Amino acid sequence: MTATRREVILAGIGLGIAFAAGPSFAQARTFGVVPSGGATDQTEMLQEAVDAAACSGLPLFLPPGIYSTRRLELRSGTHLTGVPGQSIVRCRDGGGLIGIEQARDIRLESLVLDGDGKDMGVDGALLAATMVARLQLSNCRFLRSGSSGILVSRCEDVAITGNIVDKAATGIAVTNVAQGCGRALVQGNLVRDLFFRKVALFHGIGISIDADAVVRGNSVENAPGFGILVGRDLRDVSITDNHIRNAHIGIGIPAEIVMTARLAGNVISNAQNGAIRAMRGPAPIGPDLAVYAGALA
Fold first, then answer.
1. H/E element holding 45?
2. pTM for this one?
3. Averaged over 216-244, what is the pLDDT?
4. pLDDT in tens, 57-86
5. Which long-range contacts does 4-11 make (Cβ < 8 Å, 24+ apart)?
């Protein structure tokens, strides 16, 4: 594909921003990537650049613009970065944007992953990671998914921090983190404007946690299901200092662990069916536990 003059100029501007940002970007390279404005399928070009960057050990920098692509697969050592709010990877045909399986040392920062409202599948997501050791997602935006925003399963050393998830069935889901590898960190994210998918149980959730985790300082707005839903059989989960507004249930937590989980400092407003509810399977039981929040803190 021949780059237009405008695309080359944009790429140069993007690199200038990256190098001005500090030493962490000093070795970032574009590996020939330039945006197409969403007009053409750039999957092959992007996948080749992703693979080349991982082999080199250098970050792949996406200059400002729109990249239209089918699902990209990330290999160990991949570090993708861009200009916040301006480096946009847009879904071309559904099925998700980023897939990561059995890899190590994956890092994404300052990118926009735009699902364009397309269906990612019942259990799909804009970014789906399975069996990844050391996964960091920071300062990214996950927009307009027909399914989930972020889905992390059986990974270790997970940090999901400072991201925005806007319009999805489930915002952030972390399940089955490998035992003995510490708690996953979900911190400082904004998740908003969720919706139900009738074909799947428990959608309409801001943050779903079925792994030992620290869930701290997040904001969830407009969740027709749960603001935060916690799974059962967890050993160490902490839900603190989160803000939840306009949810059916603010925080749902299994009755089996409700007295051992740490719940403190959460601010919940306009929860139609209770701020904090003990769950038995998919159904809430007993009274709203927010009245006992002091005992749970």
1. helix 43-56
2. 0.88
3. 93
4. 999 999 999 999 999 999 999 999 999 999
5. 7/34, 7/35, 7/36, 7/65, 8/34, 10/34, 10/35, 10/63, 10/64, 10/65, 11/35, 11/63
27 in any annotated domain: yes
Q: For tokens 């940002």, what's the residue? A: 21
What is the residue whose two structure tokens read 């990209």?
Answer: 72
Q: Which domain holds residue 19?
A: 5-216
Quote the DSSP letter at residue 157: E
Where would I find the beta strands (DSSP E) of 85-236? 87-91, 98-109, 112-114, 125-138, 141-143, 148-153, 156-161, 164-168, 170-175, 184-187, 190-194, 205-210, 213-216, 219-230
Which residues is 247 bridged to in the sheet? 223, 271
Asked whether residue 9 is domain-assigned, the answer is: yes
Task: Count other C-beta atoms under 10 Å from residue 180's C-beta.
Answer: 7
- Residue 77 included in any domain: yes
Mean pLDDT of the region 175-192: 84
Q: Answer whether residue 94 shows pLDDT above 60.
A: yes
Query: How many structural domains comprise the chain?
Result: 1
Closest CA to 98 of 43, 17, 177: 43
Does any domain span residue 47?
Answer: yes
Give rounded-to-5 percent helix, strand, coil for the chain. 15, 45, 40
**141: nearest Cα among 170, 120, 171, 118:** 171
